[in-house]
Design goal:
The complex is a heterodimer of chains A (about 250) and B (about 425). Chain A is of the alpha/beta class and about 250 residues long. Chain A has nine helices and twelve strands. Classes of the chains: A alpha/beta (about 250), B alpha/beta (about 425). The complex binds adenosine-5'-diphosphate (ADP) and magnesium ion (MG). The site of magnesium ion has 5 residues of chain A, from helix 1.
């Protein structure tokens, strides 16, 4: 489903290279984890996939279901099925959470040539999904992420994901700032979305989230490259030995 | 001195082109003469005046207005069209009886200044020019004095009941060289209520002065939209005096127009009164919009709130001068003032002068002023969820304006004006 080939990315201002030849293929139905030390380029990869400004792709390609993602605007990528659960969800004062979600859902549907979801249907959909993630009515009424705790923000990201039903779900450190209970809620939300037609890229610094969201493949990223790929046992190796061993292995 | 003072010259030039209305009642004559004397003493505003530092007054002062093309706004439904209201229509500042509704209504009397000013015994004698005069200190407002002296017409409203049907002053613009001067008086008796709606550009140049006297426990709601004509110019003054427990709420929407200066001068003279004044202004190109507000707290436990938001693009200019003055003894004052602008490009600018002057010790006053661009992180966040960039930008602009729009108490009016703002933004998509 997702094919990243030899992706090189640098910052638009200045020549600092950040991604230095990333190769990654994720099939529909699979969950891939990307682990790596801070500053290795994980968030950058997620932003480049979702189309954020400020990065220049100097080499390589990214396709989703054969379509060239890099040529699309962020909203077109979303309509094509890309979803990024942000490491730092943005607060948007003045835009109600519900209004925002309905606007987003209907914009995606319009882009795909589907009818808009009625207010009543949307409300029903929202209520079901919100319940699963224990997102209360006051969180839905408040402006997007404003006054939300760290955990509430992350749950709100997963709620959006559940409603938008993307093909490719990218989770950037969704576990950071979550206590165990919140992490279980989030993991349940993600697991409920696991489906033969959907792929996941779970970016995390720690192994702990992967106890709840079991990955099929684990990649280790360091200094803008994927230096190791393996099964779930690779995450456990990181858990026990840290990144140190892997990094020196790579250097040597 | 042999060199002529430019202020005196400009004032003399303007006055030469004007004549005081004839056949006036003695009180009206006296009121106009007093205003004329105030005007002569202060002189018309000059760009060296501190109070006009951010807005050039020349085109408001010169004898003839610059021409302003009449804008065809038939692409939108008439403003406030969905509201059952009493309509009073002026075309280029001239009352149009055929287009207006019958002025008789329950709970209030509505007359025309033209008639009232010829009536010897009338309650208006105690209000005409009174609040305008009081509003001249500490800062002179000579264009308001000019108005009091020379206003040809306007409405004079006395409200005794709780009137639910709004009065709508509709100011149509018909001639590209029209120069309109209207003076309105509103007196709300104890416990009375009125909603005043105003809309339209009025003329190529519009000088409007409204004096509102709100007695104990009375409430005055005001919603105004200033007309979409791109070249029109306007200077408006709203003077209001609030008695105990009185409420004043005013919201102004301004889109387009070459030059607008809206001065609001509020005086809280009775305990427990509440005054809210808000505005949303959107403009591009030569648009220059100035909100100048002066709120005086002169009683205990009053609340005042100023909320002004501006969205500017393609070289537009926004100005905010706002002051809260808390007089000695005005304890438990709750004063709030926020002025913010959203600049959609680097060509536009926002000039703000927020001021607090407090002579009481038990008060809570806060003020803030910000200028910013669209938040790129928020924009990307919205887009990443599938919202096209242009829609996302409009969503953020409406969110920015939200706090000001929320000041409109009536939900129907609020939605109507919000819809017009969205339409304005949509029309700007192409360029
Ligand atoms: N906008 C930016 N400006 C400057 N440096 C950046 C920017 N974005 C990323 N970087 C740098 O790129 C590297 C990778 O960052 P990031 O992708 O956030 O890593 P990770 O998510 O793996 O912690 C870091 O060295 C970071 O400082
Ligand atoms: Mg990161």
């Amino acid at each position: 489903m997702l094919d990243i080939k030899n992706l090189h990315v640098r910052l638009e201002d200045g020549d600092k290279p950040i991604l230095k030849g990333v190769n990654l293929s994720v099939n529909a139905g699979e969950v891939h984890a990307i682990m790596g030390p801070n500053g290795s380029g994980k968030s950058t990869a997620s932003y480049v996939l979702s189309g954020r400004d400020g990065y220049t792709v100097t080499e390589g390609s990214v396709t989703l279901g054969g379509e060239n993602l890099l040529e699309m605007e962020p909203d077109e990528r979303a309509a094509a099925g890309v979803f990024l659960a942000f490491q730092y969800p943005v607060e948007i004062p003045g835009v109600g959470n519900m209004t925002f979600l309905r606007t987003a859902l209907n914009a995606q549907r319009r882009a795909r040539g589907q009818d808009a979801v009625s207010a009543a249907d949307f409300l029903r959909l929202m209520r079901d999904k919100a319940k699963m993630l224990e997102v209360g009515p006051d969180m839905l009424k408040r402006p997007v992420n404003v006054g939300f705790s760290g955990g509430e923000k992350k749950r709100n990201e997963i709620l959006q994901m559940a409603i938008l039903e993307p093909k490719l779900c990218i989770l950037d450190e969704t576990d950071s700032g979550l206590d165990v209970d919140a992490m279980k809620l989030v993991a349940n939300g993600v697991n409920a979305l696991r489906d033969a037609g959907r792929a996941f890229l779970v970016i995390t610094h720690y192994q702990r989230l992967l106890n709840h969201i079991k990955p099929d493949v684990v990649h280790i990223m360091a200094d803008g490259r994927i230096i190791r790929t393996g099964g779930p046992e690779l995450a456990l190796e990181v858990e026990h030995n840290g990144y140190g061993g892997l990094l020196t292995e790579d250097a040597g | 001195m042999t060199r002529p003072d430019p202020v005196q010259t400009a004032t003399t030039e303007r006055l030469t082109a004007l004549s005081l209305p004839a056949d006036q009642a003695a009180w009206a004559n006296a009121g106009r003469a007093g205003a004329l004397a105030r005007l002569r003493a202060a002189g018309l505003p000059d760009r060296r005046d501190e109070y006009w530092k951010f807005t050039r007054p020349e085109t408001l002062v010169q004898p003839l207005p610059p021409t302003a093309a009449v804008f065809d706004d038939s692409d939108e439904s008439p403003l406030f069209g969905a509201v059952d209201r009493l309509r009073i229509v002026f075309v280029d500042g001239v009352f149009d009886p055929a287009a207006s509704d019958d002025l008789s209504a329950e709970g209030l009397t509505i007359e025309r200044l033209e008639d009232v000013a010829r009536t010897d015994i009338h309650w208006a004698r105690n209000l005409y020019g009174t609040l305008e005069q009081a509003g001249q200190t500490p800062v002179p407002r000579p264009l308001a004095s000019l108005n009091t002296a020379f206003a040809t017409d306007g409405v004079v409203i006395r409200v005794t009941g709780q009137v639910s049907r709004p009065v709508n002053l509709i100011y149509l613009h018909g001639s590209e060289s029209s120069d309109a001067t209207l003076h309105n008086l509103v007196r709300l008796e104890e416990g009375a209520r009125l909603t005043l709606l105003e809309n339209g550009p009025a003329a190529a140049r519009f000088n409007q002065c409204t004096e509102v006297d709100i007695a104990k426990g009375a409430a005055f709601d005001h919603v105004r939209a200033q007309g979409r004509d791109h070249e029109r110019r306007a200077v408006t003054h709203m003077f209001a005096r609030l008695g105990a427990n009185a409420a004043f709420r005013s919201f102004t929407l301004t889109v387009n127009g070459a030059l607008t200066r809206n001065e609001t001068v509020l005086s809280l003279t009775g305990d427990d009164a509440l005054a809210h004044v808000a505005g949303a202004a959107l403009g591009d190109g030569g648009f220059h919009h100035d909100d100048t507000v002066f709120v005086t707290h002169d009683a205990v436990n009053c609340e005042s709130r100023q909320v002004f938001k501006k969205v500017l693009r393609h070289g537009a200019t926004g100005v905010f001068q706002g002051k809260i003055l808390v007089r000695p003894g005005a304890q438990k004052t709750d004063g709030y003032q926020i002025s913010q602008s959203l600049l959609l490009d680097d060509d536009s600018r926002f000039l703000a002068k927020p001021e607090l002057e407090i002579y009481a010790d038990d008060v809570a006053c806060s003020h803030g002023s910000t200028t910013g661009a669209i938040d790129e992180d928020a924009l990307f966040y919205l887009c990443s969820r599938g919202v096209p960039r242009a829609d996302a930008q409009d969503l953020l602009i409406m969110a920015f304006l939200g706090e000001a729009i929320e000041e409109i108490a009536d939900e129907g009016l609020r939605d109507d004006l919000a819809e017009r703002l969205r339409a304005w933004l949509l029309r700007r998509r192409d360029g």
